[in-house]
């Protein structure tokens, strides 16, 4: 009779708890949580790089050639600053160089992954929904693309087009769209036979609306997992291309180019020019992979039991 | 089967043709070959004569047909740097790359299979967890980075192994090989391991997944019930059943390994095709670039064709599907 006996309305509780459940699920893995924290810190560091960096690494006026290849912890020639991570051959503070290098790496990596995700997802969803010739054509393209190693496709594009930030992004997008397309199609094929899609079709909901409002959200879990891992692999591929000297130009050095720059000094024992950018790259890639690996575990219904 | 094979062959030829068009357009339209072939000091008249002699005044489709015709006979032009036929320059570098790639594949099976078996048989053992965590690194770390770390550890600090070059080689059938001398083997060790890491992770994960899946199958339970020794069950019955996907992956991995040797060869200054193409891109040696790209496309189309063929031969289910 009293109000206490009445059960709480169940509908209201459901929606926020789903997100909370997800967050709780995610935070259960300490490693994944750590990866998320580290990656967020890195993103913040790249956004605020001009404020954090003790030196503008591109401003030649601020460089002093007398400070070239100083080991970590050295004080500069004029005594004005300490090089926490040492300097490169031109007397550039490695810490500042790495912060700005991270910027280029992340912009190129994340940017191309997002572009590839949009293109690949649209093609994959449309292929699955429309079917027929279009589907066959898109999926043959996907197969063809995936049968070539990523490095090779990128190499071909950059060999022909020459090096620039735009061409690197183009190469990464061409390399990665197929993975998204395949994932999106696979997820959409499962979803499109479900009753709610059939119901929407019966109600004569326009196709684009079914694709965007019904199919896409339900394919998101799979796409998020693929997307996370693909961002890491885009960053790694960009670093590789830049290391080979066919990636970003020297005016916008990414981590890969910084590592290549320090390579020749490494053999002489001056490890820091190459190793610290390498550590930064490692931290970025591993933190993203920790997040992605765990996301795959919790978003995969097979592992729910 | 015959129609399927024919259709597959036709597709392969189409892909190769499409690639020749793309490479031709890329190299000849986006970049201007005239500027590279002809000295900037040449007079207008000399320039004109050179353009006619090289065929650049012809319409594009005719230039393409000439290019295609020459390519079919193996003539892709002379390298600007080496002043030899581009294809010859590449073929000279081929054995070094093949040696590296095959050593890497061998390593991937020799290391990946036992580790995967271990991880699959004892999934909860701490060693297995370490192996699996390590394999994530094998997948995700850029191989040039791992290569640098290998050099730093084993060459710079420990001084155990040399860091660059092929070392002493022995000539067999007119081709130089490193793996036949001790010095060559030492030089081969680090690059081969570096190149193998990705494949090791791949083979390891596949083996583990295969073992775990197969162990629960009825015929394994039956074998146990029959009283077969565990060792025989694992090495004969389990291994035989997981070998098909592993063989395919290793087969496909060959192409992957050749492609990624570009990175490893650059890191370790290994004088193979991969290092050649990177150098060629940096000095714009177009005939070399074209020859390399065409060769690698053909290589990949052939590998994919062989793998498809192997699939249909090995797995009756696929064979039936293609006959429908």
Task: Give an account of the 3D structure.
The complex is a heterodimer of chains A (305) and B (324). By secondary structure, chain A is mainly alpha-helical. Helix content of chain A is 71%, strand content 1%. The longest helix of chain A has 38 residues. The model of chain A has no long low-confidence stretch (mean pLDDT 80). Chain B has 324 residues and is an all-alpha fold. Chain B is built from 13 helices and 2 strands, in the order αααααααββαααααα. Chain B has a two-stranded antiparallel sheet with strand order 1-2. The longest helix of chain B has 39 residues. Chains A and B meet through helix 6, helix 9, helix 10 and helix 11 of A and helix 1, helix 6, helix 7, helix 10 and helix 11 of B.
Topology:
The complex is a heterodimer of chains A (305) and B (324).
Chain A: H1 10-27, H2 30-47, H3 49-52, E1 74-75, E2 82-83, H4 94-130, H5 132-147, H6 150-161, H7 165-191, H8 195-202, H9 207-244, H10 255-266, H11 272-299
Antiparallel strand pairs in A: 1-2
Helix pairs in contact in A: 2-4, 2-11, 4-5, 4-7, 4-9, 4-10, 4-11, 5-7, 6-7, 7-9, 8-9, 9-10, 9-11, 10-11
Chain B: H1 2-30, H2 33-37, H3 44-54, H4 60-72, H5 86-121, H6 126-140, H7 143-157, E1 170-172, E2 175-177, H8 182-215, H9 218-226, H10 230-268, H11 273-283, H12 286-314, H13 316-323
Antiparallel strand pairs in B: 1-2
Based on secondary structure, the structural category of chain A is mainly alpha
Helix and strand run of chain B: HHHHHHHEEHHHHHH
Structural class of chain B: mainly alpha
Q: Largest interface, counted with CB-CB under 8 A?
A: A-B, 40 and 39 residues
């Amino acid at each position: 009779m009293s109000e206490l006996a009445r059960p709480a309305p169940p509908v209201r509780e459901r929606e926020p708890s789903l997100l909370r459940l997800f967050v709780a699920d995610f935070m259960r893995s300490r490693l994944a949580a750590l990866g998320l924290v580290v990656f967020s810190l890195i993103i913040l560091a790249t956004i605020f790089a001009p404020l954090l960096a003790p030196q503008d690494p591109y401003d030649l006026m601020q460089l002093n050639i007398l400070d070239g290849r100083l080991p970590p912890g050295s004080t500069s020639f004029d005594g004005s600053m300490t090089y926490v991570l040492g300097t490169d051959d031109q007397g550039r503070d490695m810490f500042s160089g790495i912060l700005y290098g991270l910027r280029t790496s992340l912009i190129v990596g994340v940017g191309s992954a997002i572009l590839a995700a949009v293109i690949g997802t649209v093609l994959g969803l449309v292929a699955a929904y429309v079917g027929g010739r279009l589907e066959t054509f898109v999926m043959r393209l996907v197969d063809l693309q995936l049968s070539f190693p990523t490095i090779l496709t990128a190499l071909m594009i950059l060999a022909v087009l020459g090096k620039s930030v735009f061409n690197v992004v183009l190469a990464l997008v061409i390399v990665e769209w197929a993975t998204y397309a395949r994932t999106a199609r696979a997820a959409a094929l499962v979803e499109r036979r479900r009753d709610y899609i059939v119901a929407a079709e019966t109600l004569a909901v326009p196709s684009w609306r079914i694709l965007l409002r019904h199919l896409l959200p339900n394919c998101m879990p799979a796409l998020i997992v693929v997307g996370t891992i693909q961002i890491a692999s885009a960053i790694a591929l960009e670093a590789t291309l830049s290391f080979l000297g066919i990636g970003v130009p020297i005016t916008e050095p990414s981590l890969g180019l910084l590592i290549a720059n320090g390579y020749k000094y490494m053999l002489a024992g001056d490890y820091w020019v190459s190793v610290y950018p390498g550590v930064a790259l490692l931290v970025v890639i591993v933190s993203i992979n920790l997040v992605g690996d765990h996301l795959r575990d919790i978003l995969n219904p097979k592992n729910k039991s | 089967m015959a129609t399927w094979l024919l259709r597959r062959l036709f597709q392969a030829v189409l892909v190769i043709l499409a690639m020749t068009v793309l490479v031709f357009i890329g190299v000849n339209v986006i970049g201007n070959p005239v500027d590279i072939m002809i000295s900037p000091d040449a007079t207008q008249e000399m320039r004109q004569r050179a353009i006619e002699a090289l065929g650049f005044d012809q319409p594009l489709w005719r230039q393409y047909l000439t290019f295609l015709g020459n390519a079919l006979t193996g003539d892709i032009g002379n390298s600007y740097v080496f002043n030899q036929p581009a294809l010859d320059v590449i073929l000279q570098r081929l054995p070094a790359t093949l040696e590296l790639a095959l050593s890497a594949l061998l390593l991937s099976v020799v290391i990946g299979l036992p580790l995967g078996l271990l991880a699959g048989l004892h999934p909860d053992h701490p060693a297995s967890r370490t192996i699996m965590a390590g394999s994530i690194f094998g997948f995700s770390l850029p191989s040039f980075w791992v290569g640098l770390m290998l050099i730093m550890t084993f060459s710079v600090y420990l001084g155990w192994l040399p860091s660059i070059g092929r070392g002493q080689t022995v000539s067999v059938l007119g081709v130089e090989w490193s793996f036949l001398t001790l010095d060559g083997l030492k030089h081969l060790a680090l690059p081969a391991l570096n190149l193998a890491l990705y494949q090791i992770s791949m083979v390891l994960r596949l083996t583990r997944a295969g073992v775990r899946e197969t162990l629960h199958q009825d015929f394994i339970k039956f074998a146990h019930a029959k009283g077969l020794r565990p060792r025989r069950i694992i090495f004969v019955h389990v291994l035989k059943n997981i070998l098909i996907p592993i063989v395919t992956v290793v087969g496909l991995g060959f192409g992957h390994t050749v492609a990624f040797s570009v990175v490893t060869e650059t890191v370790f200054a290994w004088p193979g095709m991969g290092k050649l193409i990177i150098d060629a891109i940096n000095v714009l040696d177009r005939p070399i670039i074209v020859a390399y790209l065409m060769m690698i496309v053909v290589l990949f189309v052939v590998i994919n064709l062989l793998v498809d063929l192997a699939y249909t031969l090995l797995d009756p289910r696929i064979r039936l599907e293609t006959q429908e």
